[in-house]
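haha ok so turns out i had the wrong file open the whole time. this is the CORRECT one, sorry everyone. sequence first:
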Amino acid sequence: MWTQDEIFIDPRLLAQAPELSVLALLDVALAISIRALLAEHATLELDDAGAEPLSLRRARRLLAAIYPLQRATHRYRAAVLAALTVPAKEDDDDLPF
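then structure:
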């Protein structure tokens, strides 16, 4: 899950990469979904017990889909930040002061 600093996106970063705000919101929603599913189906953390109710099987599949999506949003955010980060020059004479 993203940290508070990552969720409260700096307006300058938001201007450069507005999609990060939606991805932060998505990641929070996914994290809450995981917690809600685990609260409803405490046995989700156990191995597949065989004969399970349909809702529990569907919850397992949903979790299996959520985790890769979370990883993908984190990788995308890292790629965007890497693309926006410009290494500073040692002799940066372009300073306005």
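The CA atoms of residues 43 and 85 lie 43 Å apart.
again sry for the mixup
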